[in-house]
Amino acid sequence: MVAEPAEVEVVTTYLQLRSRDQLHAAALDDPELLLLEAREPSVAFYRFLYDAVGREYTWTERLRWSDERLAAHLARPAVTVLVLYLRGSPAGYVELDAESAEAGEAGTEIVYFGLFPAFHGRGLGKHLLSLGVARAFDDGAARVWLHTCTLDGPHALANYRARGFVPYKTTIHQERVGAHS
User: Fold this and answer.
1) DSSP secondary-structure letter at 48?
2) Fewer CB in a 10 Å sphere around the end CB: N or C, the chain?
3) What CATH superfamily classification does 6-177 receive?
4) Strand, helix or coil at 132?
5) CA dihedral for 117, 123, 124, 127, sign (positive or negative)
6) In angstroms, rounded to a whole number, what is the distance separating the alpha carbons of residues 130 and 50?
7) pTM across the whole model
8) DSSP states of 54-79 as a string?
């Protein structure tokens, strides 16, 4: 049975790191882990990553983008897609945007970040986040920021705060959620 969409209150928290010195990195020392930049990610591969990570958290926006729109987005030099592999299998990804389109937000945005459900609970999230933030600063970011909401994974906010991210804004809105809203 498919659940009917429902209106829920969604709290969105914006967080930032103003310098590399604020990062509390927690990288794992595991030779079976590999972070690779997808330098020319195909639309199909990106959709696979996005859906595998975001399905449980109502990520639907990019699934509605046309192939042409998504390809143009991924081809922008400001966008970096980093994929975490464990023993040769993709385990998650982080998408960075050095020229985020969100009004009033300077710096590099962590647009999407997460793990495939099968890889939760192994400490890989803190590893991936640490490496993604380090890459943003390596690429010249003066500030790294992101937002998370109450629809995201239950440990997302705690992970961001543990890595040194500091909240600076909170918004609340109503959103219709349900079976692929």
Assistant:
1) H
2) N
3) Gcn5-related N-acetyltransferase (GNAT) (3.40.630.30)
4) helix
5) positive
6) 20
7) 0.91
8) HGGGT--HHHHS-HHHHHHHHHSTTE
